[in-house]
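dude i think i finally got it to work??
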Amino acid sequence: MDTSHLLAAGRYIVDKKPDIVVCLGDFWDMPSLSSYEKPGSKSFEGRRYKDDVETGNIAMKLLLTPLNEFNDTRSRYKEKKYSPRMVFLMGNHEERIKRAINANPAHLEGIIGYGDLALDGWEVHEYQEIVEIEGILFSHNFVNPYSLTKNVLSGTIDNKLQKIG
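look at this
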C-alpha cells in the first residue's frame, strides 16, 4: 500500500507546527489477529503478527521522519526543538493485541503486546478511553451511554451528539 501520504502528513505537521497532534487509532491494521477470519483458512494464510507490527512501525517512522529531521537540524544549531503534544488513541485494530493475549494468556502474555508498537514520544490512551483536550472530547469510538452492552455509537454526528451530549 502506498504510504507517501504519511510523509506528507509529517511535513504538514512540521510546516504548521500545531501544539497538539492526535492520532485516533487503527494505525496498525493487525489482520493477523482478526477475529473475523479463522487461523488456517485460505484468506488467513500468510498473515503474521511480526509483519503487521513491522509494517505499522515503518509507517510511523515515515510520519515522524520530517519532525525528527527538523529537530535534528535545530539541535545542530542549538535552536529550540519543536515538540508538540503527541496523543495516540488505541483503535479497535491495535486492541486486537490485547484481545489475543486475553484469549490465550498462557502462550501470548509477555510475548506480544503494545510495547511492540513504535509509540515512543506518544501519550498513549486505551481503546474507547475519552480524552479531553482543550474542551474537545477525543476517542476512537464513543459508546452509547444508554446501552447495557456498551455498543459503539453509529450514524450521523447529530445522532452521536444527541446521545453523548
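The first helix runs from residue 4 to 16.
im so relieved honestly
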